[in-house]
Write a structure and sequence with these properties.
heterodimer, A: 327 residues, alpha/beta, Rossmann fold, Helicase, Ruva Protein, domain 3, 2 domains, 5-stranded parallel β-sheet, two-stranded antiparallel sheet, 14 helices, 16% strand, B: 315 residues, alpha+beta, Immunoglobulin-like, Four Helix Bundle (Hemerythrin (Met), subunit A), 4-stranded antiparallel β-sheet, 10 strands, 50% helix
Chain lengths: 327, 315
């Protein structure tokens, strides 16, 4: 397919993006980047980790997204006493007929909001992350496929806060994106204040069905990713592993370990999804750069030396992007 | 008769004495006057015939009120007929007094005789004086403090000399060697201004006839690279490490870049289509790309030249 036809197709297939954004913006003021990345996660079939202090509309954004999609939504509040069975379900003994009945847990939904995932102990976290990876759950001897689309959106309070269990690096890697949410701008906050003073409840209309999302995912595969962009993605990922090879000698002592191959895959998918949202049939370096922080920030571990100098993985990514030549 | 008996008696006595066993004990000190705390070298030498055996005397019991610092002995020296046993001791006192070391009793036996006999050494006297304190003078050290050699001084000197030599080396390197490296690059770049160098690169690209031979993507990559390199050199914008939109934002913010921002936007966006979207442009577009590239350079180079001329007029 030539680029003009592809562009035209993408424009048609991505028309729902504007509708979706406009529905979400009925209740979410600002946070455009966050909403955009939630849609990227949805299109890229990847899970999203949201990090930010309480009260930044993380839960509301996900709930609104589910409402706008006419999809099944479940919110699970992670607490220190939560058990894996509370999440995935359990077998219950039926005294009448002497059999075990399976009671499915809240994970059997399209959208799971795992609120404050780092408040639950490791066994619950791993139960959720296994389900995320396998997209199926085994209760007793029966294995159940999870509904598609299946998207876990986990929120995480900053790890510095007390009473939290930080997610292990291997499990964090399973999230396609880690989005950091900051406070809204002054004007946005004013709108939020005014909006919440009114007594009228905003109604979110479903503008897209889960089937349409699955179809959009197929179209996403058609978005063209040029060899030059592929090389650019590889350069970025390899610079996190061997910074010296890319003339980033100052980073070699700051990076404990670099991004995994999963980062390469997600960077490519994320860049394609970004191009799709921008109604383009091809990926440009800007798409890679736009999604780069969200894909890599949780996949690069910095050393103690870097932590002592208050250098974060984001500083490392910024240095890499400033050094690698854009095709 | 009486005279004869007297003579015989005298002969027997003399004979007895001439064959009697000989042993003497002589004690002495190296001086008779000492200051408090001085070492008093006290020696006892017992000279005897070889067939006499003495029992070692116990000095310490005798030398009451005197500090015995050391006793060296018995040191035995023998000749053919005689033996001398020496005891050399070092004593000290911490009070002034006239001291007399009493005679030291030495017990001995002669060969073939089990009887224990004894002799005594001579007594030895000496004076121990106080220090002569001059009351009218200031209090001062008996001895001046010992000045130890400051080894740290040597260490500091060593470290200091290393630092100094490194600094000297650095300055020499900076003055001669580094300057040469910089001047090499500078001279090359000074010789040809950025706009001229960029135009040369464009001419070279034209000569290579890439798009005419089907390498359209390479042509567009090279031509945009030249312009982005030019922005970096001419305006100091890191355009090579930025995407199209980011480069355009930087260019629009730059006071000298606004004049070419529109043409650059069109130029870079067209190139992006070819580079990243499999777009095959018409021949006309490829030619236009070269014209646009030259226009970007010429327009900004004119600004530079005009500014230089204005500066010259001011001076």
């Amino acid at each position: 397919m030539d680029i003009v036809a592809l562009n035209e197709k993408i424009k048609q297939e991505s028309a729902f993006i504007d509708l979706l954004m406009s529905e979400i913006s009925k209740v979410i003021v600002g946070q455009k980047a966050m909403v955009e990345r939630l849609v990227i996660g949805l299109l890229g079939n990847g899970h999203v980790l949201l990090e930010g202090v309480p009260g930044l509309a993380k839960t509301l954004a996900i709930k609104t997204l589910a409402q706008a999609m006419k999809a099944k939504f479940q919110r699970i509040q992670f607490t220190p006493d939560l058990l894996p069975a509370d999440l995935i379900g359990t077998q219950i003994y039926n005294q009448r007929d002497g059999n075990f009945l399976i009671r499915k847990g809240p994970i059997f939904s399209n959208f799971i909001l795992a609120d404050e995932i780092n408040r639950a102990p490791a066994k619950v976290q791993s139960a959720l992350l296994e389900a995320m990876q396998e997209r199926q759950v085994t209760i007793g001897e029966t294995t159940f496929k999870l509904d598609e689309p299946f998207l876990v959106l986990a929120t995480q309070n900053p790890i510095e806060q007390e009473g939290t269990y930080p997610l292990p690096e291997a499990q964090v890697d399973r999230f396609m994106l880690k989005i950091k949410i900051s406070y809204p701008e002054r004007a946005e906050e004013l709108s939020i204040m005014r909006q919440n003073m009114g007594m009228i409840e905003t109604v979110i209309n479903p503008v897209i069905s889960p089937d349409e999302i699955l179809k959009a995912r197929h179209v996403l595969n058609e978005v063209y990713l040029d060899e030059k962009i592929e090389k650019y993605i590889l350069d970025i990922v390899f610079a996190t592993r061997n910074p010296k090879q890319f003339g980033l000698n100052n980073l070699s002592d700051l990076i404990s370990y670099g991004a995994s191959p999963r980062a390469t895959i997600n960077l490519a998918i994320g860049a394609k999804a970004m191009a799709f949202i921008k109604r383009r049939g091809y990926v440009i370096p800007e798409d890679v750069r736009a999604i780069c922080f969200d894909v890599l920030r949780h996949r690069i571990a910095v050393t103690y030396e870097a932590e002592a100098e208050e250098i974060t993985s984001e500083n490392v990514i910024q240095d890499i992007l400033n050094k690698i030549i854009v095709p | 008769m009486v005279n004869k008996i007297s003579l015989i008696f005298l002969f027997i006595i003399l004979t007895y004495t001439s064959f009697a066993q000989k042993i003497t004990a002589e004690a002495s000190t190296d001086s008779s006057d000492y200051l408090i705390g001085d070492h008093i070298k006290y020696s006892l030498i017992i000279t005897m015939d070889k067939d006499i055996h003495i029992i070692n005397p116990f000095f310490r019991d005798t030398l009451k009120n005197i500090n015995v610092l050391s006793i060296d002995g018995p040191i035995v020296e023998e000749s053919e007929t005689q033996r001398a046993v020496k005891y050399l001791s070092i004593l000290s006192m911490f009070d002034s007094a006239v001291v007399t070391i009493p005679p030291i009793k030495i017990e001995y036996r002669t060969k073939g005789d089990t009887t224990l006999k004894n002799i005594e050494s001579n007594p030895v006297s000496f004076n121990v004086h106080r220090l002569n304190v001059k009351v009218d003078e200031d209090i001062k050290d008996i001895k001046p403090p010992i000045r130890l050699f400051n080894y740290f001084f040597l260490l500091y000197l060593f470290i200091g000399s290393i630092i100094l030599s490194l600094l000297v080396y650095y300055f020499i390197w900076r003055k001669y060697f580094r300057k040469k490296e910089e001047t090499k690059v500078d001279k090359a770049e000074e010789k040809i201004p950025a706009h001229q160098l960029a135009l040369k690169k464009l001419e070279q690209l034209e000569k290579e006839q890439l798009w005419q031979n089907g390498f359209i993507k390479d042509y567009h990559s090279r031509i945009t690279e030249i312009i982005r390199w030019y922005f970096e050199k001419q305006f100091g914008l890191p355009a090579l490490e930025k995407s199209t939109t980011e480069s355009l934002v930087l260019l629009k913010r730059h006071p000298k870049g606004t004049k070419v921002s529109d043409i650059t936007e069109q130029f870079l966006n067209n190139a992006d289509l070819v580079k990243f979207a499999k777009y095959i442009p018409m021949e006309k577009v490829n030619i236009e790309m070269m014209e646009q590239a030259k226009a970007i350079i010429n327009k900004t180079a004119v600004i530079e030249q005009t500014e230089n001329m204005e500066k010259e007029n001011v001076y």
